[in-house]
Design a protein that fits this description.
Aminopeptidase, 22% strand, 6 helices, binds zinc ion, 8 strands, globular, 6-stranded mixed β-sheet, two-stranded antiparallel sheet
């Protein structure tokens, strides 16, 4: 099983969402979580490629192209990692986006969503459709964009800072749960 991991944004170029009180940004958090997910998945026998790049689908030729890399490999599943943010500080929780419901992506997302919510205790915002998200629109395999938690919410942000290993283990378990289910194990 070939898993392509895409931590969102790009440290030094596009830091994503920030929490100035905690002096953290999304690009750095999701990179650390992504590296840990890769470690867990390799131990579980998966092949893993990880790419964090300021070029999702050809818009910035100075950086490697995320969707083309996944499609050309080709990956069996694609996971993009992000942190949510909102101007309302109370907004919190975990959600996943897929191109459309009732799909392999939807089943993969449900596995990841339940593992994160159950192990981290984040609010369950569910699996949603995001057909315009570039990484979902331009990939050819089951693909999920995971919003781990809200960097703009204090309780969620503390989890993102202190419990990266648990986020990573939950995501890796979600992926292996999906693989086992698809194989009929
Ligand atoms: Zn993001």
């Amino acid at each position: 099983m070939k898993v392509f991991l895409n931590p969102g944004h790009c440290p030094g170029v596009d830091c994503g969402a920030v929490n100035n009180d905690y002096e953290v940004n999304e690009a750095v958090i999701v990179r650390e979580v992504g590296d840990l997910v890769g470690d867990y998945l390799r131990k579980a026998g998966c092949e893993v490629k990880l790419l964090q790049s300021d070029n999702l689908a050809g818009e910035n030729p100075n950086y490697p192209n995320v969707c083309a890399s996944a499609n050309n490999w080709p990956a069996d599943v694609f996971i993009s990692l992000h942190c949510n943010a909102a101007s309302a500080g109370q907004a919190n929780g975990t959600e996943c986006f897929v191109f459309s419901h009732w799909s392999a992506s939807d089943r993969l997302a449900a596995c990841i969503q339940s593992q994160i919510v159950n192990s981290l205790g984040t609010s369950d915002r569910g699996v949603k459709e995001g057909p315009r998200l570039i990484v979902l629109h331009n990939t050819t395999m089951p693909a999920v964009l995971v919003e781990l938690a809200f960097i703009s919410n204090d309780a969620d942000c503390e989890k993102l800072i202190e419990r990266k290993r648990e986020f990573a283990a939950a995501i890796a378990r979600g992926i292996t749960d999906y693989i086992a289910a698809e194989r009929g194990e």
